[in-house]
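Example S7 (structure tokens).
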């Protein structure tokens, strides 16, 4: 009986996700007002509530980003970036609290290729929920947005990321965008810090936010 219930629920996933995407389309991520950031957090948390382990949608993650870099023949620092991605790929799964399964697959609501919300469920990708959070935070590029978005996401049932995984995914997203624009200058310093195993820091997530929300795991 339990298996039947899960199958029936799985059949409704596409409609539920598309409903949330329809709401997201009405919200502009460039409008960094607190109300908008909060609504985005709530919608994305709802989308991520679905486990899509059996989905055949394309997969985002460190391996996918490495492929982008390897395929870029004009990238002079390719070997360093690959090394940094491999290192962060290991850091991502460092989870001493063992509170979240990063291997669970969830629908990715933010389309990093076009910097906008996915059109519908069938047009999207899957990956860890943290990739989506990192892509949205990186695109908004505003610490106050990150604060409200993360607060709303977690409070509306979204899983809390580890700090290591969040930083790793921020790097993945930044490398993916650098590859898309064929401009790696902006990530050279971060790449150097990672390959030299210096703590990867970001101004996009305020320290106060990390402490208040209890985001840890380094």
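Recovered sequence:
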């Amino acid at each position: 009986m339990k298996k039947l219930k899960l199958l029936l629920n799985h059949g409704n996933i596409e409609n539920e996700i598309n409903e949330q995407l329809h709401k997201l389309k009405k919200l502009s991520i460039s409008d960094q007002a607190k109300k908008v950031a909060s609504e985005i957090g709530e919608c994305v948390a709802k989308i991520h509530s679905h486990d899509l382990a059996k989905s055949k949608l394309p997969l985002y993650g460190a391996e996918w980003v490495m492929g982008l870099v390897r395929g870029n023949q004009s990238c002079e620092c390719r070997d360093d970036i690959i090394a940094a991605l491999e290192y962060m790929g290991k850091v991502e799964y460092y989870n001493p609290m063992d509170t979240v399964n990063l291997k669970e697959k969830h629908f990715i609501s933010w389309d990093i290729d076009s910097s906008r919300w996915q059109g519908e469920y069938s047009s999207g990708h899957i990956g860890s929920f943290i990739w989506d959070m990192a892509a949205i935070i990186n695109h908004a590029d505003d610490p106050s947005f990150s604060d409200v978005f993360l607060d709303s996401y977690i409070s509306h049932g979204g899983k809390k990321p580890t700090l290591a995984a969040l930083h790793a995914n921020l790097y993945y997203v930044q490398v993916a965008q650098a590859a898309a624009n064929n401009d790696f200058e902006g990530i050279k310093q971060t790449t150097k810090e990672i390959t030299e195993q210096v703590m990867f820091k970001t101004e996009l997530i305020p320290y106060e936010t990390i402490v208040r929300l209890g985001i840890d795991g380094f």
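Notes on this example. The first strand starts at residue 106 and ends at 108.
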